Amino acid sequence: MADIGIFDLCAFCPSLCMDRCPVVAATGSNTWTPQSKMMTGWLMVNGHRQMDALNAATIYQCTGCMSCHDVCLHEIDVEQALFGLRRKVVEAGACPWPSARFVDNGQDLQQIYVDSVPPDYVVPEASGVVFPGSGTLRTSPNLLKDLFECFGRLGVDTFAAVPSVADDSGYDLYAAGYIAEFREHAGHVAKKLRRYKAVMVVSPTDYYAFKVLYPMHDIKLPDQVIFAEEHLGKLALARQPGAKMTGRIAYHDSCITGRHLEIYDLPRRVIEHASGQPPIELRRHHQDSMCCGASGAWDIVNPKGSADAGANVARMACDAGANILVTSGCKCAANIGSKLHGLEVMDLITFIARSTAL
Ligand code: SF4
Ligand code: SF4
User: How remote is the CA of residue 6 from the centroid of ligand 1, in Å?
Assistant: First the structure.
C-alpha cells in the first residue's frame, strides 16, 4: 500500500498534470483527472466519503501509465497510489467488479495457441518455451505466426510452443487490487513455467509482470525470462538488411515498454535499420508518450474509454504524417487499431517479421 499521505498533496494541487492523462483526453471527464481521482482517495481514506462501489469506480479510471508522475513537481506516483487504494477497496468488499473479470485463463487459450503457430513448432515438451499470454492470444493470434517466422529467419531454435503454458500472467488482477487472487494465480503460472530452462515472453505487460511483479511477491520463475521484442530486435540489428521497408513509419512508446521498462532506443534502431530512416516521432514520444488506454485494467472496466484513447494515438500518428505506426505490445497495437483511413498499426514483432522477409 502506498503512503496515503501523498493523497494530501494531490488533493490541494491545481491539477497541474491533467493534460498528461489519457483518461481525461479520451473521456473529457473532469471527475477523472489525476487530481480528482486522488481527491476521491483522500476523501475515502480520511473517512469523508464512503468506501463503496460508486466512489471506488472512480479510482479504477486510470491506466497506470505513469504519465502524470513525470510532470509532477512532487513526483507523486499516482499509479501506485491508486493501485494501492484499489487493494483497500477490494479488502473492504467495495470493488464494483468481481475478480473473475480481471483474469482470462479460459480452456480455449490452448487451442488458439496451437492454431496460431506453424505445426513444426508445437511440441509437448522443450527446454525453452514461448509464453504468449492471454492478451496476445485473444487480440492478436497472428502475431505468433510472425514470431515463429522470425525464429526461422533469425536462427532462434531453442524456443517452442507448448500449449499447456497458454495462460494469463495475472497483471490485471494485480492492477485491480485483487492481490490474494493474483498471488494464487501467479503461483500456478510460475509452477508450469519452472519446468523450463528459459521463457520467452511475447507481451510487454506479461514481461513486466514476470520481471517486476512476480519477484515483488516472491514468486519464482526460471532464471532466463526473455522479452521477445528485445531478443528479436537485437538479432534483427545484427543481420544485414535486405530490401528496405518503405512507408512513413512512426513509433509509439507504449507505457509498459517505455516508462515502466525504460526501453526506448532499441525499437527505434530496429526501424531505422530496416527502413534506412529513423522513425517519425509523434507529438508525444519517449517519456512523454501518450498512453493508448489498454493497461491498468482500464480496458476491462471502461472499454469505450479505452478504445477512444487508442483512437487518440492513431490520430496523433496521422497528424505526424505516418502511414505505418509501430508500437510495442499487441494489446496496444490492437487498441490503437486501424480505425483511421490510411494508417496501418503493428507490433514491433510483426514489423521485424515483415522486414526480415524482404
Ligand atoms: S500528481 Fe502531482 S501534479 Fe498531479 S495532481 Fe497530484 S500533486 Fe498535482
Ligand atoms: S497514471 Fe496515467 S491514467 Fe492514471 S491518473 Fe496518471 S496520467 Fe491518468
Answer: 9
